[in-house]
């Protein structure tokens, strides 16, 4: 393995030395022409989405600088919940802001130590999610969605440039969601979460070859854990006999006062300096802190006994107060550049990680050293090859190859990663373990063919995962490792049909299969589909737009993962099978100038075609509700 990576790095160096002149993909980037233009001083110019744009750090780092404009169209604005915005490819606890996991296997490029607590990752703005803006005027984006049942999600973005040398902005994301089960009164919260970040760039006027990107992020996420519907644990229903489990606000749940609290904070900078046209040096520093807590007082004479175990033979009540701290400090230095035909990076990375569990007397600390790089080769103006790799000195690695064109794209990734701290060792009031797991290794292949035109679009896709030494949490709520390989494959297609100039039928379908000696420890629905039929109208040169239609989601029955709130982990369970589910939403999305609005009847067919649906054992999806939301863009 070491020989392969050394060869890859030498290849980068040799091609860099031999390359001459030109630009990459018709674009030469340096910090000297950061945004590629000077500010227009015409004060009568009307600012809007067309002259406001953003990009991400990775585009600077890999010299593939691509800008995007804010999406000011109303299409699919109504998909505001976590399930909807993921196109129903996640599992959560039936409310916005609750713990979630992807239904698909996700190869993680973080091959070193991790905390293991990732159920709330989606609600933290990590550095790779930060958008860096180039604005000709102050830009403000205000979004507020109000779902029925006391669910609210608000987002505020503000950013401005004082010149092409400096930009600063901030994001605030807030989630406030009442309980959808066992609700007492208004304000009986299930989730309260706030995530904010400050970001910007600096390119000093007197040092035009230097560029600095920076961001500061913070998250405080609090969840009142419910534990699930009591009856789903005591009397699991027979197939097609779940009516008694859809009492929603009047349901009895296991927990009443349990709290999960997660706090994250971080500071991140990226800086680079242009040595000449094809050589740049860069440095990245990232500090991250994570605090995870769970607290509850239980009584085993109540429904608490469905979740908790006595810690001694005569104990019927106790207090649980779990706390874990995780810290990481990463520094990466590297050389990068671009030529007429390729862009490259080569780097060394040092990472210090520390894990502190409240019940463990010892703090665990690791110092990790990595080497790696990337090479992006342009074969033709529309065909690219991309290779990247990272080697954690000591044995872990990831390798990735990517091919992309306007007709076909494919990616192969091989990942060898260390177990997380939580999987390796934990001492708590309810359980403890000390494991010596093997590294988890996966081979992952995805591909997509792009066919069609403006009337018909057909894009078949496939994904394949071969997982060796798969790490998971078992039916005993403890971490475990599969003793043989798992083969998970998905085939599907996106296909869109323009039925008329104003009617569009859009579809995504999946067929999933799991095989191999340890297939029983990986759970995923066999069939999934999302279909939309909608009427679109644009008036007054696009200043007004309307989309009205219906979304239909289908998921076949499967034995879904349960959820253990004490350690924030989804785990195997064999007692409850999620019935097949159909969910229908009717919606209206509307835009006038820079004001957008949506109105939706969610789960419209509940009580007509279905009684409801389950997302996770013990947790139903939201009942039929009326949801509304607005988005307002300001460019001055």
Q: Quick gist of this model?
A:
The chain is mostly beta strands. It has a single domain, classed as TonB-dependent receptor, beta-barrel domain (Maltoporin, Chain A, Beta Barrel). The chain has five helices and 35 strands.
Summary keywords:
636 residues, mainly beta, Maltoporin, Chain A, 22-stranded antiparallel beta barrel, disordered N terminus
How does the SSE layout of this entry go?
Layout: H1 2-18, E1 52-55, H2 57-61, H3 82-85, E2 90-92, E3 100-102, E4 132-135, E5 139-147, E6 151-163, E7 166-178, E8 189-202, E9 210-224, H4 230-234, E10 259-274, E11 280-299, E12 317-338, E13 342-357, E14 364-380, E15 383-392, E16 396-404, E17 408-417, H5 421-424, E18 425-427, E19 432-434, E20 440-449, E21 451-452, E22 456-468, E23 471-473, E24 479-481, E25 486-498, E26 503-515, E27 527-539, E28 544-555, E29 562-564, E30 569-571, E31 581-592, E32 595-602, E33 614-616, E34 619-620, E35 625-634
| Largest beta-sheet details | 22 strands, antiparallel, barrel
Task: Please tally the β strands and state the result.
Answer: 35
**Tally of individual helices:** 5
Distance between the termini: 54 Å
Shape: globular
How many distinct folded domains?
A: 1
How much is the radius of gyration in Å? Answer: 26 Å
Overall mean pLDDT = 89
**Structure class:** mainly beta
CATH H-level name... which superfamily? Answer: TonB-dependent receptor, beta-barrel domain
Describe this structure in words.
- By secondary structure, this protein is mostly beta strands.
- It has one domain (2-634): Maltoporin, Chain A (Beta Barrel), CATH 2.40.170.
- Helix content is 6%, strand content 51%.
- The protein contains five helices and 35 strands.
- The chain has helices at residues 2-18, 57-61, 82-85, 230-234, 421-424; strands at 52-55, 90-92, 100-102, 132-135, 139-147, 151-163, 166-178, 189-202, 210-224, 259-274, 280-299, 317-338, 342-357, 364-380, 383-392, 396-404, 408-417, 425-427, 432-434, 440-449, 451-452, 456-468, 471-473, 479-481, 486-498, 503-515, 527-539, 544-555, 562-564, 569-571, 581-592, 595-602, 614-616, 619-620, 625-634.
- Residues 1-41 have low confidence and may be disordered.
């Amino acid at each position: 393995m070491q020989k392969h990576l050394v060869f890859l790095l030498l290849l980068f160096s040799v091609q860099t030395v031999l390359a001459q002149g030109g630009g990459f993909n018709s674009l030469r980037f340096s910090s000297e022409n950061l945004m590629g233009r000077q500010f227009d001083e015409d004060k009568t110019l009307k600012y809007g989405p067309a002259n406001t744009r953003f990009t991400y750090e990775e585009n600077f780092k890999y010299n593939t600088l691509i800008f995007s404009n804010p999406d000011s169209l109303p299409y699919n604005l109504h998909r505001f919940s976590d399930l909807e915005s993921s196109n129903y490819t996640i599992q959560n606890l039936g409310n916005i802001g609750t713990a979630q996991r992807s239904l698909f296997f996700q190869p993680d490029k973080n091959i070193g130590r991790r905390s293991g607590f990732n159920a709330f990752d989606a609600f933290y703005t990590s550095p790779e999610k930060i958008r860096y803006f180039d604005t000709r005027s102050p830009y403000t984006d205000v979004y507020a969605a109000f779902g029925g049942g006391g669910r609210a999600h608000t987002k505020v973005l503000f950013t401005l440039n004082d010149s092409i040398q400096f930009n600063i902005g901030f994001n605030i994301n807030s989630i406030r969601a009442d309980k959808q089960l066992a609700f007492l009164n208004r304000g009986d919260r299930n989730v309260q979460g706030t995530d904010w970040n400050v970001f910007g760039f600096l390119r000093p006027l007197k040092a035009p070859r230097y560029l600095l990107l920076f961001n500061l992020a913070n998250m405080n996420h609090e969840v009142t854990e419910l534990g699930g519907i009591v009856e789903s644990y005591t009397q699991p229903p027979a197939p097609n006999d779940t009516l008694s489990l859809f009492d929603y606000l009047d349901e009895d749940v296991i927990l009443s006062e349990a709290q999960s609290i997660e706090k994250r904070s971080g500071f991140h900078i990226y800086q680079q300096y242009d040595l000449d046209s094809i050589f740049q040096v860069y440095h990245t520093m990232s500090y991250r802190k994570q605090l995870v807590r769970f607290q509850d007082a239980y009584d085993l004479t109540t429904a608490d006994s469905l979740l908790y175990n006595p810690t001694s033979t005569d104990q019927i009540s106790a207090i649980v107060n779990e706390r874990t701290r995780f810290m990481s400090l990463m520094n990466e230095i590297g050389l990068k550049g671009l030529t007429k035909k390729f862009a490259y990076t080569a780097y060394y990375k040092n990472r210090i990680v520390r894990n502190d569990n409240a019940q463990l007397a010892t703090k665990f600390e690791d110092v990790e050293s990595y080497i790696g790089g990337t090479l992006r080769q342009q074969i033709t103006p529309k065909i690219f090859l991309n290779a990247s790799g990272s080697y954690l000195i000591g044995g872990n690695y990831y390798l990735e190859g990517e091919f992309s064109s306007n007709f076909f794209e494919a990616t192969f990734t091989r990942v060898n990663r260390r177990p997380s701290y939580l999987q390796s060792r934990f001492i708590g009031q309810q359980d403890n373990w000390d494991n010596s797991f093997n590294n988890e290794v996966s081979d992952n292949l995805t591909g997509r063919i792009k066919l069609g035109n403006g009337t018909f679009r057909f894009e078949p896709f496939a994904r394949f995962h071969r997982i060796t030494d798969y790490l998971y949490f078992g039916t005993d709520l403890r971490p475990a490792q599969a003793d043989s390989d798992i083969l998970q494959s998905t085939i599907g297609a996106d296909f869109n049909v323009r039925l008329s100039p104003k009617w569009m039928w859009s579809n995504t379908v999946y067929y999933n299969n799991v095989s191999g000696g340890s297939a029983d420890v990986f759970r995923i629905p066999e069939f999934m589909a999302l279909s939309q039929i909608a009427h679109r109208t644009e008036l007054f040169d696009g200043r007004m737009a309307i989309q009205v239609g219906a979304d239909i989601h289908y998921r076949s029955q499967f034995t879904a993962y349960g959820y253990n709130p004490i350690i924030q982990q989804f785990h195997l369970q064999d007692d409850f099978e999620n019935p097949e589910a159909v969910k229908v939403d009717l919606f209206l999305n509307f835009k006038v100038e820079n004001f957008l609005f949506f109105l939706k009847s969610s789960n419209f067919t509940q009580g007509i075609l279905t009684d409801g649906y389950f997302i996770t054992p013990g947790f139903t999806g939201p009942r039929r509700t009326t949801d509304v939301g607005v988005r307002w863009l300001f460019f001055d």
